[in-house]
């Protein structure tokens, strides 16, 4: 019996710049693999591997349409990233607040 496919962590999936660019492309609209591959200087096989990782992280899905596979974005798993980042926003807000006070005090 074959081992189950590894479920990719959302953070691992978006760690690669190529996969982040694929997500950006799919945020605009659904695209066939041939159209996605045109945006990258790599083989279609390499692009397919990136698409598989994004699929395993449940960030995208593909459906067959004739001889082509069409991919679409599922942004819901990115909520986990947003929640993680929101914790650190307080540090950024604190730095901006400090900068504002420095600028206003030097007037």
Automatic annotation (TrEMBL):
Pfam families per the UniProt record, alphabetical: HTH_5 (PF01022)
SUPFAM superfamilies according to UniProt: Winged helix' DNA-binding domain
PROSITE patterns the UniProt entry points to: HTH_ARSR_2
Domain HTH arsR-type: start-end pairs: 1-93
Xref: InterPro entries: ArsR-like_HTH, HTH_ArsR_DNA-bd_dom, WH-like_DNA-bd_sf, WH_DNA-bd_sf
GO molecular function annotations of the record: DNA binding; DNA-binding transcription factor activity
Identification of the protein by name: Metalloregulator ArsR/SmtB family transcription factor
Source organism phylogeny: Bacteria, Bacillati, Bacillota, Bacilli, Bacillales
């Amino acid at each position: 019996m074959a081992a189950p496919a590894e479920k990719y962590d959302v953070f691992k999936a978006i760690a690669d710049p190529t996969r982040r660019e694929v997500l950006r492309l799919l945020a605009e609209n659904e695209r066939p693999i041939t159209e996605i591959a045109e945006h990258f200087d790599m083989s279609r096989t390499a692009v397919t591997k990136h698409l598989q990782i994004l699929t395993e992280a449940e960030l995208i899905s593909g459906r067959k349409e004739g001889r082509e596979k069409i991919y679409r974005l599922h942004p819901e798993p990115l909520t986990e990233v947003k929640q993680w980042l929101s914790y650190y926003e307080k540090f950024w807000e604190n730095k901006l607040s400090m900068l504002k006070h420095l600028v206003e005090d030097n007037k």
